[in-house]
Amino acid sequence: MLQVYLLYFDTEVLKIQAEVLKLNNETAEVLDQELHQVLQAEGYDFYDYSDEIAILVDDRGFEKAMNPVFELVSAFGDRSRLAGRLVFVRNVENEYSTDVGSIKYEDIFNLRLNLDINLIGMTKEQQA
Fold first, then answer.
1. Contact 35, 58 (CB under 8 A)
2. Could you say which of 56, 58, 73, 78 would form a disulfide bridge with 116 (CB–CB 3.0 to 4.6 Å)?
3. Which residues in the chain come in under a pLDDT of 50?
4. How many CB atoms are closer than 10 A to CB 17?
5. Are 107 and 52 in contact (CB under 8 A)?
6. What is the pLDDT of residue 12?
């Protein structure tokens, strides 16, 4: 199982919510399906939050109607805007690539204390 930290904007209570989820990572394909479901996305991009932590986000988040737009500052000081649900994972360096690994509770604790993130709006409604 892969442990991830999910941040999203709950439109019913109008606040940013966070959850720790365990995703099935039996195979790369199964994990990919799980991530698509959690992100509510057909595809996703990686955003490097720090050397150890990556954020997965909907690769078409800005194209969807009424999707939350977050502005956050990475550990490197970069300010970015991301739209949709955000899944935090650990970067796992391999010989030829970087894979995703389970986020640790210590990472979540540090994110809760230090994450510089704000909801700055919603994407526009689609025009008919």
1. no
2. 73
3. none
4. 12
5. yes
6. 86
